[in-house]
């Protein structure tokens, strides 16, 4: 489905958006742009700005089902890990019979 919510975003990219005007957070593997929500968030904006990877903070608050549902509209992508450069795989060892 191309709903614009499947863009792959790294945590490094999330961390480039940490102000109230431009505020992204990652919660439970998804990335949210809360720039338009931060001013009306009942938990205030400092809590949202606190950390890019905010799953623990979000869960700690014990957000309601209403809040969980509401998040969907702010989702902009999914969090991906940056893959380390894989070293080239060694040649298959020769087998002697
Ligand atoms: C990702 C999108 C988020 C949405 C849509 C959201 C939504 C809400 C809503 C609707 C409430 C009111 C209580 C409830 O219904 O649970 C709330 C409260 C709160 N939120 Fe969030 N929230 C989000 C992210 C966060 C994050 C990342 C943090 C912390 C780092 C946070 C911290 C808080 C706090 C501390 C309260 C409690 C306010 C109080 O009861 O005085 N929220 N949030």
From TrEMBL:
Residues 6-80 form the Cytochrome b5 heme-binding domain. InterPro entries: Cyt_B5-like_heme/steroid-bd, Cyt_B5-like_heme/steroid_sf, Cyt_B5_heme-BS, Cytochrome_b5. GO terms for molecular function: heme binding; metal ion binding. Keywords: Heme, Iron, Metal-binding. It comes from the Eukaryota. GO terms for cellular component: membrane. Belongs to the cytochrome b5 family. This is Cytochrome b5 heme-binding domain-containing protein. It comes from Ridgeia piscesae (Tubeworm). The lineage of its organism: Eukaryota, Metazoa, Spiralia, Lophotrochozoa, Annelida.
């Amino acid at each position: 489905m191309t709903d614009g919510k499947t863009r792959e975003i790294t945590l490094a990219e999330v961390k480039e958006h940490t102000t109230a005007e431009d505020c992204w957070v990652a919660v439970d593997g998804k990335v949210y742009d809360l720039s338009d929500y931060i001013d009306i968030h009942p938990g205030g904006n400092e809590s949202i700005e606190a950390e890019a990877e905010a799953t623990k903070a979000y869960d700690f608050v014990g957000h309601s089902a209403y809040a969980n549902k509401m998040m969907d509209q702010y989702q902009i992508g999914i969090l991906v890990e940056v893959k380390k450069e894989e070293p080239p795989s060694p040649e298959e060892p020769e087998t002697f019979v």
